[in-house]
Amino acid sequence: MYDVADQVLLRKFQITLNLSLDGVLDVLNSKNMTDAGPLNLIDDDNSDVDDGVDKQTRVNSSYDLPGSMQNRGRPIARTKCLRIAPTGRSWAAATTEGAIEAALGENQPSRALILSLRLNEDNLIKKCIVAVAPVDIKAVVASIPFKYLNRLIQTFAELLENCPHLEFILRWCQVLL
């Protein structure tokens, strides 16, 4: 997600966790990246043949993305289509792994908290916690996957130190136990 006016990347959305796909890395090496895209994908031939995207799926192609391993015929992680709702509050993408949808500002406290835990951004996690209504705490806690509970508990420890909503945070802690 980009802020066009300021030309700043606001948030990244991961389209797959499948490391067997080509182009899926945790850290990218941008030394071969130019303004026009990856250096190896720039067509500098004078031929009329349009290899384009097909060049990436060949077994003998070199590096497709900067910092990625050589493509040995593996499928490539791609977003083929992106559609934004007219309200600008939600979007959907068609990827090689299937459809992904995201909504901003909808009243889905458990989904918002899980997504903020996936993004691992402190301020966003805290904002999602405070936005949950007290009557929804049990349902939200029940929907949190086990792998995010440690991160959630760490956030509550930070909130207990300097949050003015002590009773609210203690209610969360009681439900978590």
TrEMBL record:
Residues 120-177 form the Small-subunit processome Utp12 domain. The keyword Repeat applies. It comes from the Eukaryota. Keywords: Repeat, WD repeat. PANTHER family: PERIODIC TRYPTOPHAN PROTEIN 2 HOMOLOG (PTHR19858:SF0), WD40 REPEAT PROTEIN (PTHR19858). This is Putative small-subunit processome, Utp12, Periodic tryptophan protein 2. It comes from Helianthus annuus.
